[in-house]
Amino acid sequence: MGYNERSKLAQPEPDPFLFPKTQTHFHDAQNPSDPPPPPSIAYLISGSTGDSARIIRLLSATYHPRNRYLLHLDRFASRAERDRLAVNVQSVPIFNAAQNVDVIGKADFVYPKGSSSLSFTLHGASMLLRLASNWDWFISLNAGDYPLVTQDDLLHILSYLPKSLNFVSHSSYIGWRESKKLKPIIVDPGLYLSEKSSLFYASQKRELPNAYKLFTGSSFAIYSRNLIEFCILGTDNLPRTLLMYFSNTPSALSSYFPTILCNSRQFNKTIVNHNLQYANFDKPPKEEPRKVIPDDFDPMIQSGAAFASKFNLNDPLLDRIDQEILSRGRGDVVPGGWCLGEPRNSTCSVWGDADVLRPGLGAKRLEKLIVKLLSNGTSTTNRCIFE
């Protein structure tokens, strides 16, 4: 069922076994050994034609009852494929029990090299703000991404961090991007046409702005709820000013959020210059990372990153990650502390309190990376630098 239809109906309550009204554990700030309550992540998972199965697999690999999920197949996919995606979601018992997975019924066109990808991301984030009031971070994934840690690992580590942090790779060094991504003027057909078309490039180019400093980065990032609300609901005009500027800019998504963060006094000290994603770029660098290959497996895992990109369709590396890192069986969600079934036998067919986390080795790898990123010498000297 699409989001537009679901929003008009009375929503059933989540299973009380997942969210007991009387919690079994509380956080005592005076007792350091008492773990803080786990946060919640809002995931926007998107794909295009033929990506329905990949989206379901990515959803299962990143699933946790505490999180919120919004799935999107763009308008290059058929209505039938979008309907099948919704039916597949409805067929999974835990998704129905937690009531935390929605499918967008009215799809957007998304051109990754245009500004429609930014429009779609803001659209998805605004829907997630409306769907749930209790999530803390926002992550947008596409069908070529995959997690390298369990959600228990990720939520455990994030529970010890300020909820204001934004994990965004960024730089003010523009270099080759000036002529390729920032000075060109484009018209993205995804913003005004109802059928597939090509990006239109104007013959003229524009000068770079001097009212604010441009920053570029990766299209993947982990944003705080505070930042998302600032961009969508806030009264400061900076997000809207930059949205107008980037509406005719190639690859707008990779520059919009870093530029907001670094030009805002409210947020320029909340940014961590790493997006917690493993990605390899060719030399000289291209706009998109190269596909992950088998030789990347060990350095990818040891990097401590929470996610990786880009994977081929049905890449055997995904099976290896499922087996060796996530302990995920084919067609199953990743088991966590909320799963009470017999190990390796539909572990998550019986569930309990979603606040119970069971972090593993992935949490230790991620912790090592974040400690390095937040060390005094790294976090303050590598943030919003005007080069």
UniProtKB/TrEMBL annotation:
GO molecular function, one term: glucuronosyltransferase activity
Keyword Membrane tagged: yes
Metal-binding recorded as keyword: no
Protein name as it appears in the record: Uncharacterized protein
Top-level lineage group: Eukaryota
Organism this protein belongs to: Cannabis sativa (Hemp)
Membrane topology: Single-pass type II membrane protein
Record-linked PANTHER family: CORE-2_I-BRANCHING BETA-1,6-N-ACETYLGLUCOSAMINYLTRANSFERASE FAMILY PROTEIN (PTHR45719:SF10), GLYCOSYLTRANSFERASE (PTHR45719)
GO cellular component, one term: membrane
Alphabetized UniProt keyword annotations: Glycoprotein, Glycosyltransferase, Membrane, Transferase
